[in-house]
């Protein structure tokens, strides 16, 4: 049974990015507030400002205004971009080197500070240093079976720790001192401060692309065996039931209460509250799916799109209208963390009342009595 949880809205059309140059492909994206950055296969970074517009009928559209683009001077693709807004810096991975550039003018920092020998990198969103003017960066090193932790300041970088792993790592997410790693044959949790590691479950990185994503404090989402989206805490346990994905998921994102996944044909939406698949959106040739501060963005090689969530109240009313009382109540309870307490209590009472009338009309008097009570 489907729910309309998201609408797919175009943000950057291919003409804005590449005009008639068909060889240009989107390699990576980063979004920070209204700033959208795109890295391409011909070593350019593009900076757009995204403006969200809501029509009187409530329809949302995005207008992207190009600010500037910058050539990095190499014949290599820009493979990853991460914004450190507190430092007004963009971290750019190209040709195994992370360069710091200014978020506004895309100029490299004058000191030339950089991190060399990075295969891929991620930021620690739950930093341990306590310094607001520094970001903690974790890289998978070109050195075999090596992870390195750095502190990155406005104009300098400093290595903090080098950790060796039992197998070659191919994906990493960080929370505090905990690294969640996809190795060649399994996922593990590793505390880089104590060196203690814990096996999670087996996984063959040769057959499928691993997914490791921090979804909250001390919790990660992983692409498990058999097409399962598995949740794991830093203690190596799962506090939620898995979601059933397709076998060939490329990327995953979180927009509470939904987990969104991308494969080569569809975007699928599962509820974290009851693990059910709620929505399927056809989407061909997608290769990026990421969430940025609650904004879920998908991209093909040629264009960027935003998944706009429909208001939870509207989704609950749609479920009640189709007499799906249980699902509506589960979603309403899950909405508690997204809605101010007083507003939630008023809304929840009204939903219980509506649900009660639906059950009453279906002659389910005991259930209706409980809801009215």
Automatic annotation (TrEMBL):
Key word rRNA processing present: no
Short name of any one Pfam family annotated for the protein: CNH
GO cellular component, one term: membrane
Domain CNH: 23-296
Subcellular location as annotated: Cytoplasm
GO biological process, alphabetically ordered: autophagy; endosomal vesicle fusion; protein transport
Entry keywords, A to Z: Cytoplasm, Protein transport, Transport
Domain of life from the UniProt record: Eukaryota
Protein name: TGFA1 protein
Species per Swiss-Prot/TrEMBL record: Setophaga kirtlandii
């Amino acid at each position: 049974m489907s729910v309309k949880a998201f609408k797919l809205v175009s943000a950057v059309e291919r003409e804005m990015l590449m005009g008639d140059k068909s060889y240009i492909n989107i390699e990576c994206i980063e979004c920070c507030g209204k700033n959208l950055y795109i890295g391409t296969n011909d070593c350019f970074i593009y900076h757009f400002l995204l403006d969200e517009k809501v029509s009187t009928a409530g329809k949302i559209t995005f207008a992207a205004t190009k600010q500037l683009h910058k050539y990095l001077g190499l014949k290599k693709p820009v493979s990853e971009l991460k914004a450190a807004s507190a430092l007004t810096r963009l971290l750019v991975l190209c040709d195994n080197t992370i360069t710091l550039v200014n978020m506004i003018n895309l100029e490299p920092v004058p000191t030339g500070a950089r991190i060399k020998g990075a295969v891929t990198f991620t930021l620690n969103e739950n930093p341990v240093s306590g310094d607001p003017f520094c970001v903690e960066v974790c890289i998978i090193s070109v050195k075999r079976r090596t992870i390195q932790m750095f502190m990155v300041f406005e104009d300098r970088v400093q290595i903090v720790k080098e950790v060796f792993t039992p197998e070659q790592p191919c994906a990493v997410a960080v929370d505090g001192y905990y690294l969640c790693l996809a190795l060649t044959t399994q996922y593990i949790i590793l505390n880089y401060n104590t060196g203690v590691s814990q096996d999670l479950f087996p996984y063959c990185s040769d057959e499928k692309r691993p997914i490791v994503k921090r979804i909250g404090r001390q919790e990660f989402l992983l692409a498990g065996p058999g097409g399962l989206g598995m949740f794991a805490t830093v203690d190596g346990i799962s506090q939620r039931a898995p979601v059933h994905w397709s076998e060939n998921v490329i990327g995953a994102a979180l927009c509470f209460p939904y987990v969104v996944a991308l494969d080569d044909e569809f975007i699928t939406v599962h509820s974290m509250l009851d693990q059910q698949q709620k929505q399927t959106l056809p989407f061909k040739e997608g290769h990026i799916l990421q969430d940025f501060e609650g904004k879920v963005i998908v991209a093909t090689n040629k264009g960027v799109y935003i998944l706009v969530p429909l208001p939870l109240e509207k989704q609950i009313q749609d479920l009640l209208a189709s007499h799906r009382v249980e699902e509506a109540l589960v979603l309403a309870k899950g909405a508690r963390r997204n809605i101010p307490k007083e507003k939630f209590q008023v809304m929840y009472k009204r939903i219980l009342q509506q649900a009660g009338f639906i059950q009453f009309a279906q002659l389910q008097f005991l259930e209706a009595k409980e809801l009215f009570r």
